[in-house]
Amino acid sequence: MNRKTLLSLPLLSCALLLAPSHAFAQAPDSSTTTPKQDIKDAGKDTGHAVKKTGQAIDKGAKTAAVKTKEGTETAAHKTAQGTKTAAEKTKEGTETAAHKTAQGTKTAAEKTKEGTETAAHKTATGTRKAAHSTAHATAKTADKVEDKTAPKSPNQ
């Protein structure tokens, strides 16, 4: 630093220290408030804050009520649609099951009829064969019995 600056610093410091303090203080004016006025202003500020809070709560409650109503209506609509869809699907499934059951019953009846006819035919065929075999065996047995019961010729 240079010499001028060094000399001016202590001089300025002394001037500030020795100067009267009231020269730097603010002069009272009419814009300053009294404690009584401060209390009134604080009360008004509190009242405004309460009013604004009440309005915000009221607005929030109304919004919540509207949103709840809309949500309930949407849920009811979706539930009605879902119920209608489920009823239609159940009806279709029941009709399909009834159709398949009818087809299955018809197929089973046809197969039973075919099986019965086949069994009857095989039974008839088996009975004829058994009767033929029995008749043939009876004839053979009769021939043998006849041979044994026939009078023997003197040559034997």
Describe what this molecule looks like in 3D.
This protein is mainly α and 156 residues long. It has 2 helices and no strands. Helix content is 84%, strand content 0%.
Please sum up the structure shown:
The chain has helices at 3-18, 35-149.
**Count of separate DSSP helical elements:** 2
Q: List segments where confidence is low: pLDDT < 50 over at least 5 consecutive residues.
A: none
User: How large, in whole angstroms, is the Cα Rg?
Assistant: 62 Å
Topology pattern, helix = H, strand = E? HH
Helix/sheet category: mainly alpha
Mean pLDDT: 83
What is this structure's SSE topology?
Blueprint (H helix, E strand, L loop, with lengths): L2 H16 L16 H115 L7
Observed structural traits:
156 residues; mainly alpha; 2 helices; 84% helix
